[in-house]
Design the sequence.
């Protein structure tokens, strides 16, 4: 099979949050006049427990493109082409591996 690897650079910017989350002002961005204020997040951040929101968006997109999620591993998607060949997409956080018989 042919393999192609992808790395999604802005993964966590694509996960809409379902809840309100606040954080302290980041170092280097603190406003000296407003040190007690906090920031309300609009998107998920890396290492935030809500960062799985990206996966939910990705899963919805793949299913919309008629890919099937494996019942054995939720990070594997596949699609059977009209020719009878399969395309497999394996996702690990923000890394993807695409496997197919021919380009």
Sequence:
């Amino acid at each position: 099979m042919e393999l192609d690897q992808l790395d999604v650079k802005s993964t966590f910017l694509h996960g809409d949050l379902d809840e309100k989350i606040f954080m302290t002002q980041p170092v280097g961005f603190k406003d000296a006049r407003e040190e007690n204020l906090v920031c309300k997040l609009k998107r998920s951040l890396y290492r935030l427990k809500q960062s799985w929101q990206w996966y939910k968006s990705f899963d919805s997109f793949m299913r919309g493109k008629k890919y099937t999620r494996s019942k054995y591993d939720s990070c594997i998607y596949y699609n059977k082409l009209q020719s009878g060949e399969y395309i497999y997409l394996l996702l690990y956080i923000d890394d993807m591996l695409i496997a197919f018989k021919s380009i």
User: Anything to note?
Assistant: The radius of gyration is 19 Å.
